[in-house]
Write a structure and sequence with these properties.
heterodimer, A: mainly alpha, 76% helix, B: 189 residues, mainly alpha, 80% helix, transmembrane (chain B), transmembrane helix (chain B), DUF420 domain-containing protein (chain B)
Chain lengths: 121, 189
C-alpha cells in the first residue's frame, strides 16, 4: 500500500505563489515610491542577469519575486507536509487573492489608490 | 449513414490550421525593418507557441477532472513543455525589453505620444506575464507528487486544484499575449 501524501503540500504551493507574486508587486510599488533606495537595491540584485544594464530595475524585481517564491516554498513545504487542509476553503482563498493581485497591479488602479499622476511609471 | 470523417480528425485539422495562421503573425514581421526584428520575431513565435500549447493543455484538464486513465501522464508532459516555453518566452522578453527601453525606443515613443499605452498595457503586461511561471511549476509539482493517488481514486479534490492553477495560468498567458499584440499594433520595438 502506497503512503498517502498530505494535502498540506498544496497549501505550501498556494502560499509560496502568493508570497512570490506579492513581493514582485511590492518591489514595483517600492521602486516608484522610494526610487533612490529601491532602485539601488533592485539593480544590485538583478545585476548578475545578462543584459541587466538594459533591463534596469525590472531584472531586480523579477529576482526578488523569484527568490521569495522558491525560499518560502521550501520552508512551507516542510512546515505543512504533515497536515491535512480543507481544499475547498483554500482554493477559494487562493483564487480570490490571485484575482486581487491581478487587479491591484493594473497601473490605473494603484495610481488611483496613491493618487499618482499618469506620468509616473 | 456513418460520418465520412471522424470528429477527432476534423478537430485536429482545425487546430492545425489555427496554429499555422497564428504562428504566421510573428513570422510576417520578417518584412519589418526594425533593428530588433529578429529578436521580436523570436519573442513573438515563442509567445504564440506558448499560448497555442497552453490552449491544448487546457483541454487536457477535462479528462483529468473526469478521472480518465492516462490523463495525468499526458497533462504532465504537455505542462512541462508549456513551462519550458513560458520560461523561453520570458528570456526573449527580457532581451527584447532592452530594445523597448533603449533611447528613442518604443517606450520613449509611447511616453511622448501615448503615455496611457505604456501605463495601461506595458506596465501591466510585464508583471502579469510572469505569473504563469509559479502557477505552472506549482501545478506540475502537485501532478508529480499526487499523480499516483489521482490515478487510483478520482474522488480527491486534487484534480480541481490542478485545474484552478492551470486556468489561472492560462488567463495570465492570454493577458500577456493580447496586451503584447495590442502594443505591437500601435508601435513595435
Amino acid at each position: 500500500m502506497m503512503k498517502q501524501r498530505k494535502t498540506g503540500e498544496i497549501l505550501a504551493v498556494f502560499i509560496s505563489i502568493f508570497l512570490g507574486l506579492s513581493t514582485l508587486i511590492t518591489s514595483h510599488i517600492w521602486s516608484i515610491t522610494n526610487p533612490t533606495t529601491a532602485n539601488y537595491f533592485l539593480l544590485k540584485v538583478g545585476s548578475w542577469l545578462p543584459g541587466w544594464w538594459g533591463i534596469g530595475t525590472y531584472a531586480g524585481k523579477e529576482m526578488v519575486g523569484f527568490i521569495v517564491w522558491i525560499v518560502s516554498w521550501i520552508i512551507f513545504h516542510f512546515i505543512f507536509k504533515n497536515i491535512q487542509i480543507s481544499l475547498v476553503k483554500w482554493i477559494s482563498i487562493f483564487v480570490f487573492s490571485m484575482f486581487a493581485l491581478m487587479i491591484l497591479i493594473w497601473p490605473p488602479i494603484y495610481h488611483a489608490i496613491w493618487g499618482w499622476l499618469p506620468t509616473k511609471p | 449513414m456513418k460520418p465520412i470523417f471522424s470528429a477527432r480528425d476534423l478537430a485536429v485539422t482545425q487546430a492545425c490550421v489555427a496554429a499555422l495562421l497564428f504562428i504566421l503573425m510573428p513570422i510576417l514581421h520578417l518584412i519589418d525593418n526594425s533593428q530588433y526584428k529578429w529578436l521580436s520575431m523570436f519573442h513573438g513565435i515563442g509567445a504564440t507557441l506558448t499560448v497555442l500549447l497552453s490552449c491544448y493543455m487546457l483541454h487536457l484538464i477535462y479528462p483529468l477532472l473526469r478521472g480518465k486513465v492516462g490523463a495525468v501522464k499526458r497533462l504532465k508532459l504537455i505542462l512541462l513543455l508549456v513551462n519550458i516555453l513560458t520560461l523561453a518566452s520570458i528570456v526573449t522578453a527580457n532581451w527584447l525589453y532592452i530594445g523597448y527601453r533603449a533611447p528613442d525606443g518604443a517606450r520613449q515613443w509611447f511616453i511622448y505620444h501615448h503615455p496611457s499605452i505604456h501605463l495601461i498595457l506595458m506596465e501591466y503586461k510585464e508583471f502579469v506575464a510572469l505569473f504563469p511561471v509559479p502557477l505552472g511549476i506549482g501545478a506540475l509539482w502537485i501532478l508529480h507528487r499526487f499523480g499516483k493517488e489521482m490515478e487510483q481514486s478520482s474522488n480527491t479534490g486534487i484534480s480541481s486544484v490542478v485545474a484552478i492553477l492551470l486556468t489561472l495560468m492560462w488567463i495570465c498567458l492570454m493577458i500577456g499575449f493580447v496586451f503584447g499584440l495590442a502594443m505591437v499594433k500601435i508601435k513595435g520595438v
